[in-house]
Every structure is written in C-alpha cells, then in structure tokens.
Design brief:
The protein has 392 residues and is mainly beta. It contains four helices and 28 strands. The protein is 11% helix and 44% strand. The longest helix is centred in the first third of the chain and has 20 residues. It is flat. The N and C termini lie far apart (80 Å). The C terminus is likely disordered.
Length: 392
C-alpha cells in the first residue's frame, strides 16, 4: 500500500504568514525604537564599554574632515564619599583609528562628560575626578627617560574639555596602542546612591585630510612637590601666623636629583592660606628655545591659583585662576592657556610652579597641583617633512 506524503496543515502556514506580517508591521512603526535598542544593547550591561566612531566635514582652513571617537564607560557606582584619587577607576584600551594601516593622525580635542546610567541625561561635573589619555608606545612620541610620561592629555573637574589651538596638533600613529582612564569623585553626596557613566570624546584629523600644514606639539608634565620630612612650620600668607605642617597624603614619593630628599606630589593643606613653590626646570627640560601653545591644569578643590613662573626673568608666564564652588566642595572652573601665537620659553631659563591654596573647610584637605605643557616641536616638524612614510 502506497503511503501518501504528509500535507502541511493550512492553519500552520496561515499562522506563520500572519505572524511575519505583524512583525514587519510592528517594526515599520517602531523602527527608531528598535534602532535605539540595538545601539544601547551593550549599555544595559554594566561592565561593558561602548565605542562609536564618527566623521564630520569641516569648513576649516587647515583640514576638510575631523574624526571623532566617543567612548562610554561602564556604570560607575557612587555610594559614598570619594575624595581625589580614591574614587572608582576604569581603563579602556583601543586603537585611535579604524584604518587598516598605520597612518599619521593629529589629536586636537579631548573631553569628558557625566551621563546617567541609561546614557540619556547629562549630569553635573561634580562626579569627574579626572580622565586621562595615555599611550603605550609611539615612534613619534618623545621617550627621553628623564622626562618621559605616557600621558597625552588630561581633563578634570573644572576643566572638562581641551582644544588645541587651530594650526597645531599632537601627532601620533593611527595604530598606536592608547587607553583612556577615567576616575570619579564624590565630595558631597553622603546618604544616597547614584549610578553614572563617563563619556569621553576624542577629536583628531587624518593627515590625508589636511589642507594646510599643522605644526606638531610635544608635551611635558610638571607637578608641585613638597618635602615629606619637612619640619618647617607653614606661614599663613594672610595674617603672618605660623602653624601646621604639610604632611604627605600618599606613599607616592619623588626623589629630587642630587639631594636624596623625599618629596610627595600629594599632600595635605592646612586650614589657612598657603603658598607652595617648586622648581620644575628639570621637568620642562627644553633642548632648544620654543613656544608654549597649550597648558592643561589639574588641581584639587581649595586651590585658588597655579602659576608658571620664569625664574630667570622674574615674569609669570601663565597663571591659572581656580573658581571653587561656594555652596559645597568642588571646582566650577579652571583657567587654561591656549594660543596660536604662543609664549616664548627658553632652554637656558629656570622655571617654577607656584600653588596657592585657601582651605575654607573645617578640616585638612588633600592637594595635587600640576600642568601638562604643549610646546611647538621644531625637531618633529623637520622629520615629518622628510620621512616619506609619514608624508600624505
């Protein structure tokens, strides 16, 4: 007896067709919703970083296009007071560009924002400690051992965005290994819990999109240090009284050359107006006369100014005034220097950082004070003009 082939039940086929039709219909009416869900899928995973690359055409005399990399951190849980250098820290490693081969690129912008957990709302900068852009190694980044620092850029509370002046850039290679490290602070929120994210944005220009030659910059990191074993009393600059000390607030020490004296870059400031000076000539370490075009400043609350002084001429090169919050602990704004014309600086001059603090709280406060200086790189400019591998 011959067995007839099975026939699909007409109800099953109709059900499938109707289901597909309804699904397509729902998608057509909710396409924007679905797109957002796809885009934010990884945002729902608290331990995931998100990276997105964009490109925009620019009406700029120096270039035709600018690349932008947006990086969103995993969720940062704020559930207690976090003073400077004690808040949650997260690091993300990536390549600056997604081009298949190594090409010359020019960093021009770096910024950080605070978002809520769902990446929907911009929150105040109160929860930004600092955000750093670091590089592991590059053939273009100076690696002089006595002054080398892998930090390319840094922004912090009061100075959340940096823009290198037009006509200049910080050059490195598109396939260099770089990372962003972001740290949160919480000076004031005591009895509540808040989940946030940090959004970091990099702006750079591909060398092939340059219309007019950019001038390269090299950077130096300089910091104020205080002696750990100092027994000298601090003199209040307001009333002349002498009291308190500047104890170290960290195990991070710095051995000054030719003295053996231990120094710290993280100290406690007393409840008075205080001035600390430190010679930074060896940190600046200029091999030739050049010009300063950007100065990024990083300080803690209760600092009121940080100045760079030329000790040879007695002139203040740049003074950063710091606006502190009046209602609570925190920084509203930090002045930073940016200029295409630049400020002349000299290889045979001596330089000093001057940090002035005014601790108006009822307890000792910790302090860090430093600058990242960006100088016109005459040596690299010649290399970029002669090295065929780096030409457009």
């Amino acid at each position: 007896m011959t067995k007839l082939p099975d026939k699909k039940h007409p109800f099953n086929r109709t059900f499938i067709l109707v289901s597909v039709f309804l699904l397509v219909l729902v998608c057509s009416f909710n396409i924007n919703y679905l797109k957002e869900k796809v885009r934010s899928f990884s945002m729902n995973k608290e331990n995931s970083w998100v990276i997105e690359r964009k490109c925009s055409d620019e009406n700029n005399p120096y270039f035709t296009q600018k690349q932008q990399v947006e990086i969103i951190s995993p969720v940062i849980h704020i559930n207690k007071i976090y003073n400077s250098n004690s808040g949650p820290v997260q690091t993300f490693y990536f390549k600056p560009d997604n081009s298949p081969k190594s090409e010359l690129i020019w960093l021009t912008d770096y910024s950080v924002q605070v978002l809520d957990k769902e990446n929907q709302l911009n929150l105040p900068q109160n929860f930004i400690g600092h955000s750093n852009l670091d590089i592991a190694f590059s053939e273009l980044v100076h690696r002089q051992e006595e002054v080398f620092s892998n930090r390319l850029a840094m922004v912090s509370q009061g100075h959340t965005a940096m823009h290198i002046p037009d006509g200049f850039g910080l050059p490195f290679l598109s396939l260099d290994n770089i990372s962003v490290t972001t740290q949160a602070v919480n000076y004031n929120l005591k009895n509540d819990t808040l989940d946030i994210r940090h959004k970091i944005i990099l702006g750079f220009i591909r060398n092939k999109n340059i219309k007019k030659a950019l001038k390269p910059l090299f950077k130096r990191t300089i910091n104020v240090f205080v002696p750990v074993s100092s027994a000298d009393p601090i003199q209040d600059s307001l009333n002349g009284s002498k009291k308190n000390y500047r104890p170290a607030d960290s195990t991070v020490l710095f051995n000054q050359q030719n003295s053996g004296e231990r120094y710290t870059g993280h100290w406690l400031i007393p409840q008075i107006t205080d001035t600390v000076k430190f010679n930074v000539t060896s940190m600046i370490h200029l091999n030739y006369n050049t010009t300063l075009h950007y100065a990024s400043v990083h300080v803690q609350p209760y600092c009121i100014s940080l100045s760079l002084k030329d000790l040879t001429t007695g002139t203040v090169i740049f003074s950063s005034h710091v606006k502190n919050n009046t209602a609570n602990t925190g920084i509203e704004n930090i002045d930073n220097y940016s200029g295409s014309e630049g400020i002349p600086m000299f290889a045979d001059h001596k330089y000093e950082l001057i940090c002035i603090t005014n601790n108006t709280s009822n307890t000792d406060q910790d302090m860090i004070a430093g600058m990242i200086l960006y100088f016109y790189d005459k040596v690299l400019e010649k290399k970029l003009g002669t090295d065929v591998q780096l030409k457009r």
